[in-house]
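User: Sequence in, structure out. Go.
Assistant: Echoing your sequence, followed by the structure tokens.
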Amino acid sequence: MYRRLFGWRKRLGGGKRGQSLVEIALSLPLLLLVLSGLLDLGRVYFVYVALEDGAGEGALYLSVFPECRTVADGVACTAPNNADYRARNSGGLAVDWAAATITMERPVIAVGEPVKVTITYPFQLLTPILPRLLGVQQIMLTVEATQIIVNE
């Protein structure tokens, strides 16, 4: 009888390894889903901050030199002396600036008038799980920056 009890206890102890494997198998997909969501969320935030930096730099440059939006505005506005160049090169390498759309508004060139720079960027999601859950492959990020013209 003593042998039967200890033999039974050995079988119970051996089943605990299988229980741990089942628990990991059940919790691993949920853990991977959360981690992939955090990965994409971190990338979105990083790119959004880079876009904010670019829009802010472009608006700041337009507030000091309101006549130089792009290279096409004149000889004095060649790179790096225009707002488009400043916006595209201040945000960092995290953004594919060829895909970004930069819009600059300056209704009137006069001291005290506002200038606004808007950047729209299609952000591609990296993980395959989130696009299926959200139903979209990319998220459109839009950033605006406004400054007041301080120089004519």
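User: And one key feature?
Assistant: The longest helix spans residues 2-64.
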